[in-house]
Fold these 3 entries.
Entry 1:
Amino acid sequence: MGRDTPDQAANGQGTGGAAPAAGSGLGTVPPSVRRIRLRGQDGHVHQLVSDDGVTWTRCEQHGEAAALLTQLAPDTVPSCQTGRWQRDVAGRLGWPVAWRDRGVGEVARDPVTPVPVLAELAGDAGWEVRWAVALNPTTPPEVLGRLARDANWWVRRGVAAHAATPPEVLGQLAREAGKVRMDVAENAATPPKLLAQLTEDEGWEVRGSVAHNQATPPKLLTRLAMDADRGVRLYAIHNGSTPPGVLGQLAGDEYWAVRQGVAWNPAVPPETLTRLAMDENEWVRRAVAEHGATPPEVLHRLAMDEDSIVREAVAENPAAPPEVLAQLAGDEAETVRRLATQVRHTTDSDGPGIQ
């Protein structure tokens, strides 16, 4: 029987050492295996190729790959990855290797990587690998606790933003300055008590991160919505948990972008939209014209707005009454006429009762 080339074996074209079919089990892997190679853009085809290119096996799933490596090295931590040449299993088995495989960061980021592998990679010499472990959604709390003490800023940031980071670790990281503290402030897993402390931070970016956090309690958002810094107020009004009553107060904010943000908020009350429809700034009025909860009578008024960008928004609003669209179909601005005509045509095609 003739020997196959390594490329033939790697591509499944060989005649010797028949490979088991995908999903048929791991088969018997001889000690001549020296390297692991993963093929396929999606990383789901895993191949082990022997030195002579004859004996090889394949498995189609990540879990099977981990099991296969465990079979190869039962007394060591299995390591698998997708997409490129990998961390060398041969080295774990005591086989001599002439190269260090690449793409270990992909192993560290992969949600299917076994926890023991993540624990090992958390001590990798490369900070990018440790950072990838910190970003991996399946990294356990005990590993995150180790990484919270990492010397690298990016690694600690990854821990500060992780959903599984223990509260006590988040408290530790909140004592850091800058981006790490901001990541803690924006983490939905951060305890309310710690968020309350961060609302008093002297840096507006940290307070803004608390305001942007979708898990921030409404009581804290009410306080942040009245913050002296307009950037913090902007984050607060874009938070879906901000109480509607607070939005009404901010409708009178001195900064037009804050008032625009109020008009964009899905929870803004109709009476607040009515008030903002008379705003001096055309971008605020446009935001009202775009809102699905704007009352029909307000859309009637905005359809006669002096600024065409407001009338355009009315024409595109699915809640615009047919008579308003008919009026806008004869607008002096070509863009307004075109939009209104398109909407009317679509409505007519959909049939009665569909707005």
Entry 2:
Amino acid sequence: MLQKMKPPKRSFLLIAAFALTIGFMSTVLLADTKAPEKNTSAAPHDSTAVVIDMDVVRRNTPPKAGEITLTNVGGIAFKTVDKMPAFNGDMQGWLRDNMQYPDSVRAEKAKDGCLIQFIVSEKGEILRPQITRSSGDAGLDNEAMRVLSKMPNWVPGAQKGNPVPVVCNLAIYFKPNMGGC
């Protein structure tokens, strides 16, 4: 007669699965927490080699996600670069001389600001301005866009020594006592 085979005990299978899980988890945890080994072969006073190596890595590394944005004409604009664009001169003075508090909101004595995002091109031109945070008043927003469109060229941003288009944000605040300046 044929004899029935007895199935393995369930406790044995649970113990084997638990042991394998513990082994796997300890390997993963040890790999994540292991400190990188320090290179002791180089002299401690010779840090130039490390700086040069990092410079080579930085130059040859493609931009990370979120560092660039696509423009609507198929180009790219950087969000962070080695040298960020800068206004050529005194921006606050220029804004003070060219910005006018709109008469349409003077009676309301509205005071608020808006945030404008734009691209500074390789030539320093301001391209594609758009309001990313409104002041809540169309008159203030329109004046901010008008002033931004009148702005002179900026010093362009540079990546690895080459001028590149860069995405910038500018907050413009309005106060009722600005007068008609």
Entry 3:
Amino acid sequence: MKTRTRLAAALVTAIILGVIVLRIPLDRVAAAFRDADYVLFLSCMVPNTVFYLYWDTLILKVVIGWFHGDVPYGDLLPVRASSYVVGFFNTNAGRGALAAYLWRRLRVPFLELGGTVILLVLTEYTQLVTWALLGILGFRTEVTVSLLPVAGAVAAFWLVFFGYTRLHGKDWQILRTFRRTTPGQFAAIVLLRAPMFAVSLVAHYYAARAFGIRIPFAEMLTFLPVIFMAAALPVTIAHLGTTQAAWIYFFGAYAAAPRLLAFSLVAHLAFSFTRAMLGLLWLPAAYAELVSPAPARQPC
């Protein structure tokens, strides 16, 4: 099944990129790569990735502390960073590696920790929808109005899901975190994620100028969350293809397709590569954490 899934993802990636390449002259894409201001680009994107790592670890520490037990920030940081190395090749494997470390450290049921990781992923999607909704309300066009049902669908999903976990999820370990999560805690996690997107929004807004792309801030606020959600879909290899198609579709009115393609490729690869490099830097410390004797679980 995994082999079929990987082959399907490779096929989807090849089809999307193939359609894009057939429609966009490669010589103009090469020119966009050549003419870019990489000093400006890297000065925006590298700090964005570093901030992402440190803030993401902070959110992890807060949520794990709420539901499972305290883990010092300094212990979590190298393991969180190293999970990005695994995630560079397979996102779900990276999340699984993180859950495995927490299971060993806290000695709580693995599926329960898996449920907490899923909660973190779903709150990430929720905050992206929230940011997109803010942009939609402030920038109304035919395209943005068509995205309004997405926000309604997300709200309906959470109402149904939380209702189900409280009525039928009592004995399911993977749903225990959801059952224990209060509306206030859920909202707090979403709000905690807000600085990550705000920094990323500003970074992409100015980094795009390195490729001669000037997108109005309101449009960037509206559509960048949608692009991030498209990138998160587990249907392509390394999230390539869907991201580039989304950049060209949503921002085609503000820049030429070759420039958008070049920027989206470099931005996506720079973020993934920088995270992986940070993970490699922290890998020795993470290895020490993984091979050291697991401490006795402290009472919550």
